[in-house]
Design goal:
Elements: H1 4-42, E1 47-50, H2 54-67, E2 81-83, H3 88-97, H4 103-111, E3 117-121, H5 128-139, E4 143-149, E5 161-165, H6 170-193
Parallel strand pairs: 1-2, 1-3, 3-4, 4-5
Helix pairs in contact: 1-6, 2-6, 3-4, 4-5
Length: about 190
């Protein structure tokens, strides 16, 4: 018989354990990410985000936190963040006309500028369209922060700053990506506006 209560307890415990391991695994990288984003915003640059599946939804979530605000206690202007995952016309035309692996790189070619920051989300670190987006970002001198998991995959060596969640479970990685993104946004807000 399915022990639902046990599954609930074990899942929440595993999620908490991954977040606790992330403190030591990623604290330094989180601080560098905050400094990089603050510097970009202060220089009139923007944050761009790309990912697939659940990570695509996370991009939209994170962009909204920067554009609108994370906490009501910080009264601040909007910050420029764009989820490249939300324009279905660009995504479907790119996938149809160029191939799925080129969708984000093509959008970055048009929207990215030197000095911008890209959040590249990939739980495996091996998504071909994210790898190509990172290559395009590097060509345009865009600083790339990789939100990764497990070993970091191929992207670990391609991004400027890998934030690698110490888990091999996609769900735990994505949950922790959102937690880390909330921390980054919170610190950016406080550093810039408090």
């Amino acid at each position: 018989m399915l022990d639902k209560e046990k599954i609930i307890t074990e899942t929440l415990q595993e999620s908490a354990d991954v977040k606790l391991k992330t403190i030591n695994a990623c604290k330094g990288e989180i601080l560098v990410a905050v400094r990089t984003i603050v510097d970009a915003f202060k220089n009139g640059k923007k944050l761009l985000l790309c990912g697939n599946g659940g990570s695509a939804a996370d991009c939209q979530h994170i962009a909204a936190e920067f554009v609108i605000r994370l906490t009501a206690q910080v009264n601040r202007p909007s910050l420029p963040a764009i989820a490249l995952t939300t324009d279905t016309s660009n995504l479907s035309a790119g996938g149809n006309d160029l191939g799925w692996e080129f969708t984000y790189s093509r959008i970055l070619e048009g929207l990215g500028n030197e000095g911008d920051v890209l959040f590249a989300l990939s739980t495996s670190g091996n998504s071909q369209n994210i790898i190509r987006a990172v290559e395009q970002a590097k060509a345009k001198k865009i600083f790339v922060i990789g939100f990764l998991g497990g070993t970091g995959g191929k992207l670990k060596g391609c991004v400027d700053l890998p934030i690698i969640i110490p888990s091999n479970c996609t769900a735990r990685i994505q949950e922790t990506h959102i937690t880390v993104a909330h921390i980054i946004c919170d610190l950016v807000e406080k550093e810039m506006f408090c």
